[in-house]
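Hey, quick one: can you model this chain's 3D structure?
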Amino acid sequence: MMGAVQLLPGATFSGIAERGEYPSSARSALTLDELERWLILEIARYHADRHRAPGAPSLAAWDEGMARRPGPIRRPHDAEGFLIDFLPSEERLARRDGVHLFGIRYWDDVLSLWAGRSERPLRVSYDPRDLSRVFVRGPDGALADPLRRPEAAADHARRASSRASRAAGARAGAGRRAADLRHDREAARFGRRGRETHQIGAPAGGKTRPRATRELPFLG
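Sure thing. Here's the predicted structure for all 220 residues.
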């Protein structure tokens, strides 16, 4: 796979020393998203290729080994924490106005427990693709709620409110549709009952008998 990386557009040299003063950032050819997509496809291709050691594609060898396992594979107890542990991180002090990272201020009420009370820095993990929030572990190592930029927190609250409003509107719309459906069913049922009553009261042959009438005396 490392050989395939060297064939990518914008690939330069094998290390920092060999690169020297070459302006690799200025002459980059792929965005981070494009590189990530290529890497995913390359991993999928690698696992689908036949390899000499197992004598089969890696994916087939994995499936065969999983089928022989006496029990399910062990998974991380905390999936979110497991993912966050793989993110890059920096150590920052919790200040009274929040945590500062890359010139951005982040805040959550959980920082009130440590801001100005502890000189021990916090481990702040971040996703380079989304700096609207960061993740911190407290002095005890427990993962706290994500810290957000104040404007991002406001946007998050607005989106949550909008989602709640849309959900309430959807429930109300579903209720109206259910009521309309019940009304249509009742109307169809009463219409059918009326037709059945008319057919029962009609004489054989389908002709309607004329009603008997009587003349009223002229009042004048």
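One thing worth noting: Confidence is low (pLDDT under 50) at residues 212-220.
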